[in-house]
Write the structure tokens for this entry.
Amino acid sequence: MKRPVVPAPPVWDFPSPRTAQLDNGLRVLIFQRPGQHLINATLVLELPLSAEPRDREGVSAILQRCLDEGTASHPGTDFADELEGCGAVLAGGTGYAAAHLSLEVPSTRFGTALPLFAEAVREPQLADADVRRHVELRLAELAQEEAHPSHRGAIAFRAGVIGSEYRAARSASGDATGVGAITADDVRAQHQAHYGPERGTLVLAGDFGGEDPLPAVVAAFGDWRQPTVPISHEVPRSAPARALLIDRPGAVQADVRLGRFGIDNRHPDYAALRLGGFVLGGGFLSRLNRVLREERGYTYGVQLANSPARSGGLLAMHASFRTEVAAAAIAEASELLRVDGDRRITDTELTDAVNFLVGIAPLRCATASGIADQAAALVEAGLDTGFVNTHSAALRQVTPEAATEALERHLPLNDLSLVVVGDAEALAEPLRSA
């Protein structure tokens, strides 16, 4: 008996949507996915956080949290009752470039749920009491985040590597000062100024049973007429490299971030940098994790993440190390980020990285929600859905030399910022020595 030959998997392509545009400017992307009977509808509204008033940062997030609290047609809990009757779920959030609201509903109830979804976007109640409650909840979350080393480190790192004049340097959900000043009038004004159809892209994915979902979209959104104020997207720039130690007395671990302001996925080096970063710290058997976790036992895990935004991004190593070994771990991590001499990216490492990143793409898009999430993320980044396929092709073309050179260009060890959250009394002197 001969061993069976396992052929190479076929090249997977991200599906092409059917596109349409309503008379009011709303753009629609429809992904017909047979067998996916849980339909996802995601509305992406182009709304950069730089459009928020400086003294009311976080108002976009509060607005998002209030959208399911009742509408003009179904005030108060009536709206939640109607959604529950459809078996539908609403979820949303705010990014630095856009706001998004998504609906998941069984295909048999899509026609009933879509008008409710439109109500939440077009005519939210935004009652004073609801706004006050969500402001108080957000202030409580901010207090919790202040006590959490990972949250404190993430906020400090963002502020440390992006110029302070940019909105991207600050938390997407605002700080206690801005959030605490938000009123219901502020939230209603934000909705009036920025929620309009010409800013929106509606992504639909699922099995529509052979029927065209566009007429239902027209019925729910076609007469939406809401002029919005002009907007522009900021283009952040990096801040000078710095080192910051945030004191957390008595902490037994130090939360560490080492990196800089990075590149977005339009940059010609993006594919090569993504692969190089995966080799250094993207997988369980990456160089950083293999040494710092498996060999040294300094940490439960370490990663090097390249997080692109609409313009630029964040490129950072992140880990929590035991306090007594933190300085040694940071020094060794810096050495592991070197790709000069015999530490250049190898053919084997690159092949493994390509196989993983190309191979995981279809798994992430196996459901209607996965397709809609990917398409919505591309819309928020200002990219078309063809980017997935062109990026996969670009990954397969990267050479070990190109990956090495991208790391040398975009992760220069003499120009990285370091943020450490931990016991300053125990860490300060070892860090200075290292």
About this structure: The longest strand covers residues 253-262. Residues 30 and 204 are 5 Å apart (CA to CA). The two ends are 60 Å apart (CA to CA). The mean pLDDT is 96.
